[in-house]
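Batch job 17 of 40 flagged for manual review because the log was empty.
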Amino acid sequence: MATLSDDPVDKVQAALQHAYPAADDDLGPAYRSAYEHWFAQLTEGERWITVTVTVAYEKGRQDEAEKIAAQLPPAPRFPLP
């Protein structure tokens, strides 16, 4: 299982991977399994936060997405630099 991180950047990446699961095939099955498990454990409110994070990111507001994502529980550490 992937290492969990409290870094908002990792939380944004997990939210994006859930929204766009085929966005990067280089991540491998272990990370895919880890973020799916992470998302499954979120409350309904936290799941809505991931939607807000994704929308902010899509609008080019990465800083805002990270601030919002900071509210989420630790997420799997993103495996790519």
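Reviewer: the log was empty due to a logging misconfiguration, but the result itself is present. Residues 3 and 76 are 6 Å apart (CA to CA). Unflagging and moving on to job 18.
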